[in-house]
Please model this.
Amino acid sequence: MIPDIKITEYDYPLPDDRIAKYPLAERDSSKLLRYAGGKPEEFVFRDIPGLLPENSIMVFNDTKVVPARLHFMKPTGAHIEIFCLEPYSPAEYNLIFAETQTCCWKCIVGNVKRWKSDRLVLCNPDSSEEVEALGLVAEMVERDGETSVVRFSWSGGYPFSKVLEICGTIPIPPYLNRESESIDAERYQTLYARYRGSVAAPTAGLHFTQRVLDAIKERGIGIETVCLHVGAGTFLPVKSAEISGHTMHREPFSVSLGLLETLRDRSRKVIAVGTTSVRTLESLYYAGVKCIEEGRPSDISQWMPYEREYHYSFEEAIDALIAYLRDNSLDSLKIGTRIIIVPGFKFRVVDVLVTNFHQPQSTLLLLISAFVGGNWKVIYDYALSHAFRFLSYGDSSLLFRA
Model:
């Protein structure tokens, strides 16, 4: 049954001066709010290794943000901004980044009404010879509601990944109310980012430094990774009065067979770094259910966790996934998820969550409420009254599941 939740019940006052517009000089010098047993406490992020439960594993999202924002110009001189959302042709990230002449992306286009059929030429305000030599152009293929399919063509034989590096900018969140700057290329990226594909950073990971990671390993805590490519849907506000009217966008993810085997051992607590890791890990149970009932895993729909009671154990679901991968000689599970986590959700994997402070009336705030048993206001009131910084470049929290 789809939960009946009014989004206005998940609101709080967030003054503009509490939104961190820039990162701190040192990643691990941010504040850390620990919430366990109903009590919030303040620490510094570099304290986190000593605050984690023993005999646990920590799961990071190693997706990498791509410089997916491109600025083009019409023959009339009008500017058109194109934001690459997800591959269209080829449809796989690794294939589209390897293309050397042309490719198509699903995009959000600014000023789209002013773009009819013109071939757009990339803006080159600094008269860069490298940009000029690429000759990057954009053509509209089709429009589909809020998004458009755009074909890019270029010269020089560079892979499209390199084209974006030369021509694109990092798509920082719109609530920062500023243009991307050179600092964002480094700091709006986790230290361990590996696989290109996200248009937004998994920001809980921005606080981790090598010394913090080393200290976590020294405590005997396992370090594991998943990869979920974060889509622009993470920026979209909930516009419907009730959460049932909100649509989650599909995000592709990958989980290794080795991690599934590790998760199968329920003796260790699971610490998720970021809400993207939570959504990936919690999607695994439902992928296992699909294996049991349909013979193979497939995309997880938004409301699948709420449609009925599931009586399979976690072990049965994971065993089904492991068997499917082994039987098909696969080393990882690669599907997509639209899962939404709201109060009433039954957590089956994650015990502890590292996350930043999220926007009012957002799906991420609903996830936090679900995780801490509805006590999100206690946490956010404490953060607001103790000068914590909010959103992507803000401070962090360590939450123990209710």
